[in-house]
Design brief:
The complex is a heterodimer of chains A (277) and B (335). Chain A has 11 helices and 4 strands, in the order H-H-H-H-E-E-E-H-H-H-H-E-H-H-H. Chain A is mainly alpha-helical. Chain A has a single domain, classed as ABC transporter involved in vitamin B12 uptake, BtuC (Orthogonal Bundle). In chain A, helix 1 runs antiparallel to helix 10. The N and C termini of chain B lie far apart (59 Å). In chain B, helix 7 runs antiparallel to helix 10. Classes of the chains: A mainly alpha (277), B mainly alpha (335).
Chain lengths: 277, 335
Amino acid sequence: MIQTLLYGLTIGAILYFFAIGLSITFGTMQIINFAHAMVYTLGVYFLITFMPVVRDFFPLATLLAIVAVVPVAYVMERFVIRRLYGESLDYAMIATYALLLIGTDVIKYVWGNTPQPVTDPIGISFQLFGIDVPVYRAVIVLMAVLVFAGLNLFFKKSIVGKIVVAALEDTEGVRCLGLNVDKYFSMIFILGSALAVLGGVLYAPISTAEPYMGHDILLIAFAVVIVGGMGNLTGTFVSAFLLGMVLAITGRYYSQAADTMVFAVMAAVLIFRRSDA
Amino acid sequence: MAPSTPDISMPRIAATKRTTIYRDMVLIAAAFFALIPLLAMHRVTDFMIFCIFVMSFDLLYGYMGRLSFGQMLYLGTGVYVSTLFSLHFNPNPILSLMAGVAGGAIVAGILGLIVVGLDGASFALANLAFNQVGFFLVGSAFQRVTHGEDGISAGVEPWGFLDFANESVAFGFVLLCLLFTFFMLRILTTSPYGILIRSIKENESRVKFLGYNTFFYKWLTFVLAGAFAALAGTLYTLYIGFVSPVFIHPLNNVEVIFAALIGGAGNLFGALIGGVLFMTMKDSLSSYIPQWEWILGILLLVIVFWLRGGVTGLIKILYGKAKMAKGAAKEVEKG
């Protein structure tokens, strides 16, 4: 059982890394970003490519992967997503889905279709309540908490963060103050993409790298964002771990039903929330 | 009794509308017959089934403005309900068809209660999520009944002259279903109900403000779209006779979205043109390039940024320009 809970925490942490970018993008720009899945997968493949270059030093390869994805995210934001601010939500969804289609095919073309394993970079376990806990998983959970604390600090203390929080509330109002909102949105978008890459890179050693790995987590991350509330930063954190637990506990008893259970929780939340409103 | 004045003019308007619908239906039938020499007949049948599916999606997206990323669920429900019905209850094709459509409508009726109240993004994503659940149920949970990824053969048997192994019969039957769908949707979308759902697309709160129960109309549209999608699904069962989870796969939703957009959303002709265009593209591209989805992606971007009206929108623009050019020429002639 403890093993299951730990797995839930790990998955929750990964979901948090992924969903936070989606949540911010939706909260500020009102855009549902399907291409987030592409960035996530791309980051993992960059990691695989950089690993031999840095002599299998995982943290450095992670950093390089994140840095390599930044220009991709910038181009996507600048030439596709920025042109769709304030336009109909549907077109933005379709455009980002189009990016996902293109990106997935590029990934398949460059790296091939076959799943590629990524080795556990630490590979040591420690004993906790009499069971083996891989240090790596503990590190992932720790990093999620650190990122959450860091993001909170960023949004509460830094001026960029404050502007973005204000824009989450009222974009027009911030624009009226004479601030160039687009610039900050762009920064936030890149930050979200970088976190998605971090999530992907950290998850890769637990699973395997394959071109559709982003698609799988995307749906669950959408559920996280809906349950947590779009653009709600703390809500996203809580719901990521909650749904991570749901995944792990369902997976323990009936592994194929895990995803379905998450969507059931989401449906329940949707029904409940509407009757509430 | 209500004053009788409107009663005099109303039927006449309706009558003229009917004749244009019949004219359009003849045109559509002729167009599909004309496609036969260009492609094989069985391909045209395939195209027509897909066109029914696109029309069902267009009712939801084009007319009511609700983008769903989960319309495959209703196609898949039609496919699987009709297949299982034909295997376990009755091999009659018409009964299987009715069972499939009823199944799609019931699933849409139940899930509609949950999703219809949501706004744009949540609506699209909730539908996608339910589609994923349906895919799981068919592909994994009920593997014993559906044979999962391996697929399953339908048990539909010929009934009278309705033998789907005969290409011409299948073509004729599917064409009739397509014309029926077109007829129904045309009548619905031009009726007061159709105006109402288009008003919901433009501004839902105003429609509500006028005292309409928008939830009910949205739900009704959702169920209708589900039922017509299921009709397309049952036709796949009858026609292909072998079904697999491909018919309910959530990743295939992009196909119908693309088809509706490239033809021009909110226009039944657009849906038909889009359906044929998409299938032609899929056929021709997939035989040359194994990975062709990126082309779909690029075309989608082109549509979103430069060609929102799709092909029918483009025709309208060109037609308008030609008209303007004509007008300008006349002006010049006049001096």
